[in-house]
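>> received
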Amino acid sequence: MSEFNRSKPEIDFHDGEAPTELVIRDIEVGTGAEAQPGSTVDVHYLGVDLETGEEFDSSWSRGQSINFPLGSLIAGWQEGIPGMKVGGRRELVCPPHLAYGPAGGGHRLSGRTLIFVIDLLGVS
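>> returned
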C-alpha cells in the first residue's frame, strides 16, 4: 500500500494568535474506512508546541504507529479524528482545554496549544 509509505510530516510555524477552538485541516483526504467516535485507530502522528514549534512527541521518531481507542485520547483527537478516512493526513490544532488542560494541570504540556499531524492507517 504505497499510500502509507509517507515520510514524517513537517509542520509550518504558526503565525498569529493561538486558536481558542479546535482547528481541523485535511492535508490529504483518505479513501478508506471512516473513523467513527468510539473507533480504535491506528495512526502515525507528530506533535509540536504551537508557541515554540518544538516537537514533543512523534510515532515517526519511534518508527512505529500506535493503536488506541479514540475514547482514551485527548479531547482534541476525540473530536478531530472522527470523519477522517484511512489513508488521510489531517492537522489538528488543539487549544489547552482540548489537550492537557490549563497551565498548572500537572502534565508537562498543560496550558499549551498543540499541533498534531495525524496519518490514519487503520480503523476498527
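>> The longest strand covers residues 40-49.
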